[in-house]
Design brief:
With about 110 residues, this protein is mostly beta strands. It has one domain. About 10% of the residues lie in helices and about 35% in strands. The protein is globular.
Length: about 110
């Protein structure tokens, strides 16, 4: 599945991510139509559409990959792939879901 599709559930979460967005080219990541991104040695695949963004999630100065996922049959969630590479040479580890107060952030598939 291409990483560049957008889902309605991911767009609902986008405003909180936009303030820390990092341009992909500045991070050493070049996304084009049909470009596949790898994490933990495998191509990233999500349920439904995807809405990728880069932000420094863990304050280590490296751009981490933030991906919204979801479709009309599953809740919208936010995946976080920490950058375990170096500045200008991103390498993403396995993902975890974004949480708030210990609960996974989700948006009902019905909006």
């Amino acid at each position: 599945m291409r990483l560049l599709r957008r889902s309605a559930s991911a767009l609902a979460l986008a405003p909180m991510l936009l303030t820390a967005a990092i341009p992909a080219a500045r991070a050493g990541l070049f996304l084009g139509a049909g470009e596949m991104v790898q994490a933990a040695g495998d191509t990233i695949q999500v349920l439904g559409g995807a809405a990728p963004s880069l932000a420094d999630w863990n304050n280590d100065t490296l751009p981490d990959l933030i991906v919204g996922e979801g479709n009309s049959f599953s809740p919208g969630r936010v995946r976080v792939y920490l950058n375990i590479g170096a500045a200008g040479a991103p390498l993403f580890g396995d993902f975890f879901y974004a949480t708030s107060f210990g609960d996974t952030l989700e948006i009902d598939s019905l909006g």
